Amino acid sequence: MSTKEKLDLSISQVKTTLIEAFILVFIVVFLFLQDIRSTIIPAIAVPVAIVGTFFFLLLLGFTINVLTLFALVLAIGIVVDDAIVVVEAVHSKMETSDLSGRAATKSAMSEITAAVISITLVMAAVFIPIGFMSGSAGLFYKQFAYTLAIAIVISAVNALTLTPALCAILLKNNHHSGAAQTKPTGVKGRFFKAFNAGFNHLTNRYISGLRFLISKKWISAGLITLTIGIAVWLMVITPKSFVPEEDDGMFMFSLTMPPGTGLNRTTQITKEIGEKLAKIEAVGENTSITGFNLLSNAAGPSYAMGFVTVKPIKERGKVKDINEIMGQVNQAIATVKGGTVMAFRMPPVEGYGVTGGAEFALQDRMGRNSQQLKQKADQIIGELSKKPGIAMAYTTFRADYPQLELEVNEDKAKQMGVGVSNLLSVVQNYFSGDQSLNFSRFGKFYRVNIKADGIFRMDAHAFQEIFVKSEDGQMVPASTLVTLHKVYGPESVGRYNLYNSLNINVTGAPGVSNGIVMQRVEETLSKLPADYSYEWTGLSLEEKASGNQTVIILGVCLLFVFFILAAKYESYLLPLSVLLSIPTGVIGAFLGIKAIGLDNNIYVQIGLIMLVGLLAKNAILIVEFAIQKRQSGLTIIESAIEGARSRLRPIIMTSLAFIVGMIPLMTATGGTAVGNRSISVSSAMGMLSGVMLGVIVIPLLFIVFQYLQEKISVQKIKD
């Protein structure tokens, strides 16, 4: 499958998901607003934000790829938030007064404008630090984060300009003059009446539970502490990886024959492998190459490799999962005799290594011979194979290939007037060739290469046909100056950091993340003697480098949010009531990915950074309204309760709209399915737990930090 086919398939799937998410979000908004006019207003925010985002993507030089389209799918559930908050606030004003749509809009905007601006600044603050990330992880984060940040800023501008104008024009107050008491008719009317009654009952139960927790201080403190503790614990124990392996519809196999095997025998075994693979229903085309080893990048007659495509998911038959297909492939090639065959999948990110799994370079710091390095590698591979969670550890390096060592009789060469360097140059040209001349003729450029014909360099007798010119112009047979010794050694020697080295690949068992595999490898390699060392290479090197960077960026995101809220509330304490509510969503995110067998990969980390902004948004809505009530004269406890009561409906509505917008990504299939599930499940489950626990924790945190803030402020005034 070509790169273009993969991209076309992935983009086609995301486009479908985009439409499905928009429809689901539209339904949720209509369920809560219960008015087609009110529903159209937030729905308009989606195309406005997405079209505007495309304009800025063009200015930034970004392309339409899987990452930017991912961001746009997630944006559908986010960009409607601000518009929903505005429309819901206008509805609340009209339900409790006889104000017209225009007057209700003015009154509502005077209360929520500050909250909308705060939410936008916080969401932007979460994504802006990601632009400072470098390396491969930075490429993943940057395009995604900037796309989402642009969409959010555009939606905020829309919520402060277009949405209020549409509310004033389209919304009608149907709640006054006894209209609200009219008995609903029809299925829709009865359904909405039952829905509203149920939601009001839920709100009353919620407020009762909140009052109970406020009265039980130790239970509340324990709940908050337990929430933070569980979130930290889940972050620590969840396995980590860089980029998850996707079903890219392709795998490779490598064949290594015994040293000294001829090309004909290697070709015969390669054909046998192709015949066995052709019997597997899901396998498509097979292209094999003999004489080359992709894993070690070495050429030789005892090597072969193959690129095998897997049929599209709909055509695979009974077995559709790529991991199960690889199980069938391994079972088929296990019966091949005469050589060692390994089947492996391509790395998740092209250009970083040749295979998936962990990869490291074992270095010999003492410069010993290759046999000793190979012995040490075999010892390490044996230890790794005993580790739980590791399916296979291997190296393609071998030091037992039959070779001829050429020894020059320097004294005799000097007597006959033949330079050693000249002799070796002639031998090299005879066997491996040399580009000796270039010339132009008839308007074309030609290269002249010299090399002995194949039949004259088949064995040691070839040296009898090689002659070297001496200083006096005589032609001296090379066979009289050299002695050949049969030895065993490697076909190619690798170096890493200027040391002799070889690469070892480690594959995890099904369900075991690459992070755990790397951890097991580090446990084993920590016992290496001082004269040996190791370095991660390929995608493992990028994974190791990006791990600490992600933690730092997450910390910077939280710091940016804290500073913005501190400036907004003119307090260093009140922002903590927002930040300390974020662990409520972290719990759901990690429980969600653990439930479906995923690990903490880069897509999950992107989802977590996004959750910081989304959960902070919910907390800001409650805290902002509670501060207004406190300034109007209510007690701290009553302010928190009123803030929670009035903001519960918009919080649930916006959060549910975001969650249902993730459903198409959760059920996606194909080449980006694992990435889809990683980011959608972590975000949706994090939002779900963040709402369920957050609406309880946020008012409690507000009461604590508002009390401390007023205590400190009074103390300063006295001083």
Describe the structure.
By secondary structure, the protein is of the alpha+beta class. 60% of the residues lie in helices and 14% in strands. It contains 20 helices and 15 strands. The protein has helices spanning 3-33, 36-60, 66-95, 101-127, 135-160, 162-170, 186-215, 217-237, 263-278, 322-333, 370-385, 410-415, 420-432, 514-525, 539-569, 574-579, 583-595, 602-631, 636-666, 673-718; strands at residues 250-256, 283-293, 298-310, 340-345, 358-364, 390-394, 401-408, 434-441, 444-450, 467-469, 475-477, 482-489, 494-496, 499-508, 532-536. Strands 5, 6, 13, 14 and 15 form a five-stranded antiparallel β-sheet that branches. A hairpin with a 2-residue loop joins strand 13 and strand 14. Helix 1 (3-33) packs parallel to helix 3 (66-95) and helix 18 (602-631) packs antiparallel against helix 19. The longest helix is centred in the C-terminal third of the chain and has 46 residues, at 673-718. The N and C termini lie far apart (74 Å). The model is unreliable at 177-181 (pLDDT under 50).
Distance between the termini: 74 Å
Strand count? 15
Q: How large a portion of the residues is in β-strands, by DSSP E?
A: 5-15%
Structural class: alpha+beta
Tell me, briefly, the overall form.
elongated
